[in-house]
Amino acid sequence: MEVATGDYLYFVDSDDVIHENAIKHLVDHIGDDRIMSGSVSTIKSLDQMEEFEENEVPEIKVRKTSKVYTSRTVQKGLFSRKAVIDHNIKFLENVTTYSDYSFVYAFFC
To answer: Cα separation of 70 and 34, whole Å?
Structure first.
């Protein structure tokens, strides 16, 4: 995060695959919000991976909600880099599992 230069942060694990336009779609719809959430699908087979790769334009549904972000993971969230910097939000280094919980909680406090 310390070397990021853009306006937003998006976290991807080494085993994740995202659509080539996923970040663009999130950025196009975030507006003045501090976070924009996408969706996650589990790919369980090679056939599903090939189908994912062949889908050029995914179906996009944009919905504003007043619900609290209930996911305790950074996965699928586009975060405002300014909000992260302003509130000095970081991942805890001494945590080996669920390390993103503290990041997400701090983001919304």
So the answer is: 15
Report the predicted TM-score, pTM, of the whole model to 2 decimal places: 0.76
Q: Which residues contact 28 (CB under 8 A, 6 or more apart)?
A: none
Joined tokens for residue 32: 């003045």
CA distance 22 to 108: 23
Can you tell me which residue has the tokens 């507006």?
31
CA 69 to CA 97: how far, in whole Å? Answer: 20
Cα–Cα distance measured from residue 76 to residue 43, given in angstroms and rounded to the nearest whole number: 15
Residue-wise pLDDT for 62-92, tens only, equals 666 555 556 677 777 889 999 999 999 998 8
3 state SS of 99 = coil
Q: Which two tokens stand for residue 15?
A: 């085993």
Q: Cα separation of 78 and 3, whole Å?
A: 17
